[in-house]
Description:
It is a single chain. The chain is of the alpha+beta class. The chain has helices at 34-41, 53-60, and strands spanning 4-5, 12-13, 19-22, 28-31. It has a two-stranded antiparallel ribbon with strand order 1-2. The chain has a two-stranded antiparallel ribbon with strand order 3-4. The termini are far apart.
Amino acid sequence: MxxxxxxxxxxxxxxxxxxxxxxxxxxxxHFCSSKCQKNHKLGxxxxxxxxxxxxxxxxxxxxx
Length: 64
């Protein structure tokens, strides 16, 4: 079993759940929900969307 991380929000995705999107250039995106997939398709930036892990890290002052 392989646990993946959502490409948009950063949550962990359990085995057998979520969606996989493969672009024509071969890059792979893993989404935990249709909410994340739709936000990615709309071109939204995860660090500017308040409910994502990246936004929480910036808000708390933790930077990688």
